[in-house]
Amino acid sequence: MMTNARLNRTAVLQDRQGLKLASYLSLGADELPHDISERLRVARVQALAQRKITKLKSAHTVMANGGSAALTWGRDEGLSLWGRIGSILPLIALVVGLLLINSMQDDNRARELAEVDVALLTDVLPPAAFADPGFIQFLKAEL
Q1: Does any domain span residue 99?
Q2: Per-residue pLDDT band at 67 (split at 50, 70, 90)
Q3: pLDDT-derived band at 30, boundaries 50, 70, 90
Q4: Nearest-angstrom CA–CA distance, 55 and 78
C-alpha cells in the first residue's frame, strides 16, 4: 500500500520526466517542415481532448452533501444498511477486545498484589523490616 507521500513523489517524478521529454522534443520542432508540424499540432490537440480529467471534491462540497471530511458514508458507494453494519463490526470487535485485555490485566495485577500481601502477612517479620529500604528492594526483586 502506497502512502500519500510516495504517491506525491511518484507524480512529481512523472511530471519531471514529462517536462524533460517535452523539452527534448521541442528542440528540433522549429526545424520541421510546416506540414509535419501542423500534423503534430493536430495530434497534440486531439490527445489533450481525450485525456481524463479527474474531478476533485473540495471539503466544502463534501460537507454540503451531508458528509464529513474525515469519513463519508458516500451516497455513490452504494453501501446498504448491512454493508454499513459490516464496515462498523471490526471497530466494535476492536473496542470489545481492548476492554477484555484491560480487564484481564487488571485481574492479573490484583492477583499479583494479593500474592505479595499474603506472603508478607504469613511471614514472621519484625515490624522494623517493613521500614528497611533494603527490604523494599528485596520485594521489588522478587516480583
Answers
A1: no
A2: low
A3: confident
A4: 19
In this structure, what C-alpha cell is assigned to residue 73? Answer: 458514508
d(CA 125, CA 76) in angstroms, rounded, equals: 74
Q: Which residue has the cell 481492548?
A: 98
In a domain, 74, yes or no: no
Q: Which range of residues forms the domain containing residue 36?
A: 1-50
**Helix residue ranges, H only, the chain:** 4-27, 34-50, 59-64, 81-122, 133-142
Q: What is the signed CA dihedral for 45, 48, 50, 52, rounded to 10 degrees?
A: -170
- 87 part of a folded domain: no
End-to-end CA distance of the chain: 44
Gap between the Cα atoms of 87 and 78, Å rounded = 13
Average pLDDT over residues 38-52: 83
100: its cell numbers: 477484555
